[in-house]
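Sanity check

After download, print the first record. It should look like this:
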Amino acid sequence: MRGAPDRGKGWWITGGWKSGSGNHYVSETWSYSWSVSHSLRWYLETSKSGLTAKQTASVSDLQIGDVIFYDFQGNGVIDHSTIVTSIRNGIPYVHAHTNDSQNRHYEYKNSGAYTPNIKYYFYKIDDVFS
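Expected structure tokens:
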């Protein structure tokens, strides 16, 4: 994943993810922002430092490390999230934890959760971490 060269690769915990706020798993306290897709979307949209992202309208804008959110029913409720882990022929493939998915086509058409009403929300992780 993209990140500042002096901090290495990957996502790191910032003040918004600390234990008392229920934002990451430490000492049997689980993370809303890591465990609940809607909360991760909110965190990425509102965070001013550390891990931040901006929504983009086109799947073709995504790169490895970006995030896709899924509204399976098309009712405005984010049900699921994945991380882009490869791109083949311009198509993102994703990994996810629920029903462990590796290199799954981002559209999720082979999922039991898929519906014809599905809505996708594409988020580019910002390259600059402050």
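If your output differs, re-run the checksum step. Summary of this record's structure: Strands lie at 53-56, 67-71, 80-88, 91-96, 101-105, 119-125.
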